Amino acid sequence: MDLKDRIIETSLTLFEQHGFHGVTVNQIVSESGTSKGGFYHHFQSKDELLFVIHDYFISYVLTKAKETIETNDHPTEKMQKIIKSFVKVFDIYKPHISVFYQESIYLKPQYVDAIKEKRQSYKAVLFDVIREGIEKREFRSELPVEITVMSILGMVNWSYKWYKKDGEKTIEEIADIYVDLILHSLLTEQTKKDARFKEYFLENHLTASKK
Questions:
Q1: Domain 1-43 is classified in which CATH homologous superfamily?
Q2: Can you give the pTM of this predicted structure?
Q3: Domain HTH tetR-type, which positions (predicted)?
């Protein structure tokens, strides 16, 4: 692990235990086994460190979403892959997400603006996929695009509150459940019958496992 990541990992543990204002740069430096020079080489301030913690997980989902758009043709397939990568972020970056939502009120305005910009980019990808799905008649045309996107974001984002790595369901199983719920709501009846998308639904997972 390089120094930057070591500082982030240490700060995550400290912020979870003591809160953002309960931790000093000196504590982070001491616990991570570095110097103040080492800290300030990577971060201008504790505020920037909190911003970078958020940037790790929003950059991950945004990169995955853009890759999906570029490498898949069907809106249904795009949505399935976007949901899967979105859900997985709560496993890969669970400490980052918990700390961010707990401490984000302390961010300075310039960092809040940068975060909003990336979140808007992610929303824009979802808007484009929903619109494309409606235009290609894979998604139900009566669904309002904005409410649909905000519903998906709200439902999946709330996972950070209850997801546990040692819980009953793995993150893969949880992702499959979200895919099933969202696609059952989004897809037209005709699209649901399309053999190319059969594997996205839980009933077909169960059927396959019994064979």
A1: Homeodomain-like (1.10.10.60)
A2: 0.86
A3: 1-61
- Angle 65-113-127 from CA coordinates, rounded to 5°: 35
Rounded to whole angstroms, the Cα distance separating 135 from 129 reads: 10
Which one-letter DSSP state was computed for residue 19?
-
Q: Kindly list the distances between the CA atom of residue 9 and the CA atoms of 13, 41, 110, in Å, as whole numbers in the listed order.
A: 7, 16, 24
Q: How distant is the alpha carbon of residue 175 from its chain centre?
A: 11
Could you give the C-alpha distances from 128 to 75, 133, 148, 194, in angstroms and in order? 9, 8, 12, 22
Q: Which residue from 81, 153, 78, 159 is spatially nearest to 119, judged by alpha carbons?
A: 153
Domain map (residue ranges) of the chain:
1-43, 44-210
Same fold, 1-43 and 44-210: no
User: Does residue 79 surpass a pLDDT of 60?
Assistant: yes
CATH fold group of domain 44-210:
Tetracycline Repressor; domain 2 (1.10.357)
What pLDDT, in 10s, does the model give residues 109-155?
888 888 899 999 999 999 999 999 999 999 999 999 999 999 999 99
Taking residue 122's Cβ as centre, other Cβ atoms within 10 Å add up to 20
- Give residue 138's region: left, alpha or beta (phi > 0; psi -120 to 50): alpha
Q: How far apart are CA 196 and CA 200, in angstroms?
A: 9
